[in-house]
Amino acid sequence: MGTFVPKSLSDDDWFRILNTTETVAERVSFLEFVAVKQRREEKDRMKKNEKFERGEMGYGPDLYQLINNPMRNRKKINITQGSRVLSTLRVDEAPKIAFDLQYMFKEKPRIQSELGNQMQYVISVSLLCIASIFFLEKIGWKCVGFYGGQYTHQTVLPDFTNKSVKETFPDKDVVYISRHARDVLDGPLDVGAIALCASMDTAREALGAARRGRMRAVRLPIQRYVKWQKGPMYLPFPNIMRIFREVHVNGGDWESALLKNISKRHLLTPEEQETQAQLERTNRRKTRLREKTELIRTIQEATGHL
């Protein structure tokens, strides 16, 4: 069978097949056209139904995203969680992670929603390792999610506190991550705690918070190990959490951790992106053509028609 097969044929479709097509190839091409049209209409209908059921909220890039509840299907991920915990226990104690939410509610509503989604993903990532996470500013629990559910007592979730980073970790060496900092965080993660500012950091909020809290501001060694080609040099917080975990487990290999957790679109030049996209389009076109040719030959051999 071909890649595109129509689910049904109307009277008009049958009329056009019997009266406007002469060869098997023409009929197969027409059936593919009907299938593509039906698939497009079905997708449009599904999008409309989703918006209606969710109060006209769109889903997709820069819009609302469906977050899977990490408290469901626990048996399915127990093995994964256990292996992550074991691999973390085999190395030294993991640094504590603190998210500073003081600037989150000064952002625009759309940015707040995006940051809230990222915090939920951060919780999902933290469930797969033993890194301790703290949220500064109690008011943020409603926007972060998970904390208003019915079964939250079954899962170990990050703690909220109104204390500052220094007050939360008085006996630890604390660093504050800021992409505008001069110092670079490199080598093994031998710090006691890492603070992250829950904002887009467009106005250097993280650097200001680090200076007011008298903490050492550092930036990730992105420019040292990665050649950033395109787009703003901004990493979502779930990616940063995965980078921290991999660096902690592998003993300080930032290059491999960064390459695994940075989108390829940031690392390719425009020429490389165009070449890769053109190669993918060519391969898809060749695959469809080969399947179509095989289908036409099979029909011709079975029916004896050309």
TrEMBL record:
It comes from the Eukaryota. Gene3D superfamilies: 3.40.1280.30. Residues 81-269 form the SAM-dependent MTase TRM10-type domain. One of its GO terms (cellular component) is nucleoplasm. One of its GO terms (biological process) is mitochondrial tRNA 5'-end processing. GO terms for molecular function: methyltransferase activity; tRNA binding. Keywords: Methyltransferase, S-adenosyl-L-methionine, Transferase. This is SAM-dependent MTase TRM10-type domain-containing protein. It comes from Heligmosomoides polygyrus.
